[in-house]
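Action item from last week, closing it out:
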Amino acid sequence: MQQFFKDISQIKGITCRENVPLAPLTTMKVGGKARCFITPSTIGALERVLRFLHRHQISFKVLGNGSNLIVEDEGVGVVLSLSLLKGIYRSKCDSVYVEAGCSLPGFLKWCIKNGYTGLESLVGIPGSLGGAISMNAGANDVSIGNFVKELCITTADGSYWLKADENTFHYRAGSIPPGGLVSAVRFRIRKEGEAQCVQKGIVAADALVPSHGSLVRDNIRQAMKKRLSTQPLGQASAGCIFKNPLPECSAWSLIASCGLQGFRMRDAQVSPKHANFIVNLGQASSHDVLSLIGLIKKRVWENTGVVLKEEVVVWRHEEEFWQK
């Protein structure tokens, strides 16, 4: 292990730390340590890290803002943090370039400052852009994937741009090529002459639209007010735990129908405010959270015949890496 840390620490443009606690870096606030925590400062540095890991056949996990994630208490091996990749700028080709480590709240602030409407419904989602793209995050019938023009895919062989089409994004999922990860995105901007729909109160669902920052801010405030009234945003959680089985069949209604809203397993609780959220009341472990997830799935299946599928990602312990 010491030789591994020595070799990887020599890669230009990265920082590498050992035994980094992951619970404080996740919105659920549970989980163990990362044996090796790597932070590249540029996409070029990310390419060099991926090349090194691929050459040594070492698996890794990618951390954005730590939402939609549960880390097992025993910890994991190698984690790549994209927290320094957060550049945003308007390009000349009717698009906005955003790096994967930028937070969704940070991008919405940019939209307010620069006057672009379209993504206000995503307010309250604390994740990074890369994570949001990978799972096609959405709310109130607005999905982030619909706005994507191109994806920058970074692999051990370098980076390239991939044009998004109707097959790239699905419900709470993105089709990312095997062996690659999303390092940046270009969002489509509707041309000035095509933006008249905003004046009529119609927001395009496939592009950012030039608007006034004050209007964008008002839209965000209204969307946040609605979220605060229906979701436990002030508590530690990973967001929605399960995918909706069907558009007309919500996971929260199935869970609530089984009498589980407010049900508690030690400090892991099904939120009394929204049954598709599990909140950490303070001292929950990942074992508590995962046990509660298993109980919910069992009860819903027994009572309704519906199999719930997790929307949240679980990072499992990697025993073989820790023994090296």
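Closing note: The longest strand covers residues 14-21.
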